[in-house]
């Protein structure tokens, strides 16, 4: 009996030991597998992770890591798991198979808001009432007028300033007034008005603060401390901008209550008339002011920066500038101005715009997404709440997709079917899928038309002591990708 009890105890001990050993082996194997299944990336420092690897120009530094770690990169930015996608193939996998899972965002707005009923409703309103092809086609005369006014400013200031002009000022003013006419049916800025200047300054400051890398994003426990003052300053300028827009919204509400009808029904009218239509979310007056403001912020920087980069490339590549001018002269002639109906007949202009967007995507790291659930992506395990960054800047310069990718070569798009609508994943300046830019149709028209009018109206040369070879093409990060040094050039009006 004692022997039997001893045998049982020994058997239980051996069984427990084997089970413990097996559990340890499986646990170690699972831990090892987890490491193997996580995408490759550099080892991080305690607490800060890979922040030093990313630096102040994250799109460039992430691109440099691609040669060592491949097109799918894993980073730890402080406390935040981060997945970086840097090839057309990896982007296609995301947008085609994981678009919904990766479609959440951590902050609130139409561009970067949480994937929710309110977000879908606001985006639908913007798409149907402001940015549909029909609405944009009807407003073509307004765009031409805004460009004509800008060209007149350039002519006047070139005389005053000894011939030289800085593109940034004129392009910013033009795009603001263009968008304000689309949204509220009037110019929001007079060229030399105090209120116009105040609005631009507030918008510029907001953009600078909002585009500054924020420690709170990687260390959420610092949120209340706000060590860099980013939240305080962002809220300061955002409140100022919302208040300025609210004045216009309140004025329109008073007009409607008094029975006055806006003959040219605009986007603000559509927002004020929206009653929910059976949807869960309705629009408050503050919501309306924020949506109107976001239309200004999202559109103005992207359009004006892309035009400035396009003119920078043309001035750096005078042969391309001459080819574009020759095409305009041959197709349009010297008896009239280019119109939007001409754009489809100008293949070299279209190629110049695509090549500009390839080398200088306005948002180099497409606005960050957030995984809604644990998921498997390209054989890797990606946990819930991982930040997902698509490095369009790197994808657009990938030798696997492009010959001589660092050169400005519009000819690569002649007779090419590649477009910017989000289905050719080697060229995604507007993103793709649920989160693609709803303003892409308007942006392409404005960039194309403005570059064409600048080249048709003026001959251009660089300032003294600046040659095409030493045009400063350094970048500066903000909400959008800016030139570090604003582009300066000398316009010489062409005689027709």
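-> sequence recovered:
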């Amino acid at each position: 009996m004692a022997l039997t009890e001893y045998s049982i105890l020994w058997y239980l001990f051996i069984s427990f030991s084997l089970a413990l050993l097996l559990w340890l082996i499986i646990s170690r194997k699972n831990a090892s597998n987890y490491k193997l299944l996580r995408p490759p990336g550099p080892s991080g420092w305690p607490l800060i992770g890979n922040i030093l690897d990313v630096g102040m120009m994250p799109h460039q530094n992430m691109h440099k890591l691609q040669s060592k770690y491949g097109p799918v990169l894993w980073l730890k930015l402080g406390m935040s798991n981060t997945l970086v996608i840097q090839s057309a193939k990896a982007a296609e996998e995301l947008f085609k198979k994981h678009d919904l899972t990766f479609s959440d965002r951590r902050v609130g707005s139409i561009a970067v808001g949480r994937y929710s009923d309110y977000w879908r409703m606001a985006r639908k309103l913007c798409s149907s009432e402001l940015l549909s092809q029909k609405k944009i086609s009807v407003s073509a005369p307004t765009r031409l007028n805004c460009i004509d006014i800008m060209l007149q400013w350039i002519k006047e200031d070139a005389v005053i300033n000894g011939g030289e002009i800085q593109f940034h000022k004129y392009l910013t003013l033009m795009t603001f007034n263009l968008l304000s006419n689309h949204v509220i049916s009037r110019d929001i800025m007079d060229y030399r008005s105090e209120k116009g200047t105040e609005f631009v300054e507030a918008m510029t400051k907001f953009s600078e603060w909002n585009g500054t890398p924020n420690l709170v994003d990687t260390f959420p426990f610092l949120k209340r401390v706000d060590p860099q003052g980013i939240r305080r300053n962002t809220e300061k300028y955002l409140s100022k901008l919302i208040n300025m827009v609210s004045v216009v919204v309140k004025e329109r509400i008073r007009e409607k209550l008094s029975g006055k009808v806006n003959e040219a029904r605009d986007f603000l009218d559509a927002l004020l008339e929206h009653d929910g239509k059976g949807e869960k979310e309705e629009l408050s007056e503050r919501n309306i002011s924020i949506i109107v403001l976001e239309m200004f912020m999202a559109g103005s920087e992207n359009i004006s920066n892309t035009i400035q980069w396009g003119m920078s490339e043309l001035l750096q590549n005078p042969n391309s500038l001459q080819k574009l001018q020759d095409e305009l002269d041959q197709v349009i002639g010297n008896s009239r101005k280019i119109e939007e109906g001409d754009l489809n007949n100008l293949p070299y202009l279209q190629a110049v715009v695509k090549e500009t967007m390839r080398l200088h995507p306005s948002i180099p790291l497409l606005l960050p997404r957030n995984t809604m659930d644990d998921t498997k992506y390209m054989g890797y395990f990606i946990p819930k709440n991982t930040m997902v960054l698509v490095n369009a800047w790197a994808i657009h310069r990938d030798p696997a997709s492009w010959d001589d990718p660092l050169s400005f070569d519009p000819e690569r798009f002649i007779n090419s079917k590649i477009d910017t609508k989000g289905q050719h994943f080697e060229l995604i300046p507007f993103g793709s899928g649920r989160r693609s830019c709803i303003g892409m149709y308007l942006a392409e028209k404005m960039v194309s038309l403005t570059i064409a009018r600048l080249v048709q109206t003026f001959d251009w040369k660089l300032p003294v002591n600046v040659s095409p070879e030493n045009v400063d093409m350094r970048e500066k990060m903000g909400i959008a990708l800016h030139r570090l040094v604003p582009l300066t050039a000398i316009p010489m009006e062409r005689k027709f």
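The CA atoms of residues 38 and 380 lie 5 Å apart.
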